[in-house]
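Methods — Computational structure assignment.
A single polypeptide chain was analysed. Its primary sequence is given first, followed by the predicted tertiary structure written as structure tokens.
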Amino acid sequence: MPGSDTLRLTLSLTLGQVLLQGLPDNQWSPLVHRDTSVSDTLSKRGRNTPTLKKYETVFCPCNKVEEALLSLLIGQVLLYKEGCVSVHQEDELGYKQANKQAHTLLNMLVSLLAKYSQYRPLSDVIEKFLKYSHDDEHICKEFGLSLISSEQFVRGAAVLQKCHNRKVDVSIALVLAQTYVRHLQRHADAIKICEECLPLAEAPHVRSRVYLYRGVAEAALCRSSRLREDQNLYNKRSIESFQKSYSLDHNCSQTWYHLALRLASVGEIKKAFRFAHKVEASPGVVNMVDVSHLLALVLSAQNKLEEGLNMVTLTLINYPDNLNLLITKVMLERQVHGGHSALVTCKEVLLPLLERLSTSTSKEMLDQTYLPYSDQWTSGKFQLTQWSDRVSTHTTASFTGSTIGTLPAESLCESIDSAIGCDQSNWGYQAEVWYTIADVFLSEEMISDAQKCVDEIKQLFPLSHLVSYMNARIRENEGNQKEAEQQYINAVTLTPLHVPSLVALGRLQIELNKPILAEHYLVEATHLKPAEYEAWHYLGVLHQRQGCHKKAADCFLTALRFESSAPVRPYSVLKWKL
């Protein structure tokens, strides 16, 4: 490196250090000042006023953080100008000195960019450095973490997996397992990583966290398994993992929440309520809305519908725009106060969604000629900081913190997930809202209004099996069983795992006197979801018609057992958060 570049690099690093560590905010001043006194004097003498045209294409920092970043980026350019940190350098002493400067520069950039959540440029900075020092394990870990923080999950997981294969690090392994579970749905890989780092996790709270992550991955495998044996196996393993996590750390509210959710899913309602109530009473719980939602569902499973409705109503005071919770309120009100009250709540669900989406087609649903009870009805996007290539402002390049809107990723129920096949977007919310309103209309035998809601879903997702399923229910309410049968078959053809379609098709086959087909669909439904009490009930009806009274009695008893602990909505509407 030429001497002038070496001097500039040293000055850039020194200036960055002084600005970040030694200069108070109130003592910083901008680099460029316009001297108004000189300008006025020259104007009076008839001379031209000095202008700043030469600075129009120059980035001028507006605070000391921007100036420090600019200085460090200049140092980065000088450092890589001639490949000075290349491992192929013949001058070993010069290489060590340049490598030391590069590490100093990188550490300062990492601390600065990470402090202000600028993970995308941070990953670019580290990637450039890795081109010259690809064997540095610490830098590789920082690169993987920056990629995951900037939502580049596939690349980030691949980088961290390489680091994990070289040497098992419990902290990195936990981040990798969390990424596999939350974003990549690689649950088996997450379980494998947790088992590999368990022998190295000595601290009790760390071992508790490993067991927690393993339990969440096993619970996800349980939900995705089709065979009952696999479901029972992963159910047992996940509960054991959560219990081990709880035994190691009794104060982890996250473990309580996941254990309560798993116990509720397997029908242990009293134990689930005890743990969920424990989470709600503990201070500092982050996802209080999910805890309250779980409590409301558990109360509904105990047939305490009014208490569950009160719990949801109180929670909505603090979270009025939580669509997932509003839909649960609709389901509870329909059972407690009837369909008329539920329709009023449907308006509360629909209005914030329409304001968020601003879709003219959906707004027609609020027209008085479109919905009944016209006298009762009235008519995350991520925001990342932008980089300015000229003079910065506090609304663009200045590091005042980026405003990140929360993406609605918690409210899609299991049937909507499988129907839509998208990443739980706003369209998914909209489809679930229309589905809920159509369901309320059907319960009130308002078929034409239900059909209009189904048409709204069809505009969003024309090939969704929910469209065929709801159309089949409408045709069945109209007395057209043949058309309903065909629509149910279409729904099962589109999504063979949709249990409500299988149950409805099996029930319809009983009415059409097709016992073999009815048993096939109902047994398939019980295999996919053993706790589906309606499938067991209609299996009992089928066996009773065939004269198999003992089998019918067993099916009816199983249906009663599952119905007594069934919530108003499946527990799958609650996310497994880490």
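Note: The longest helix spans residues 92-115.
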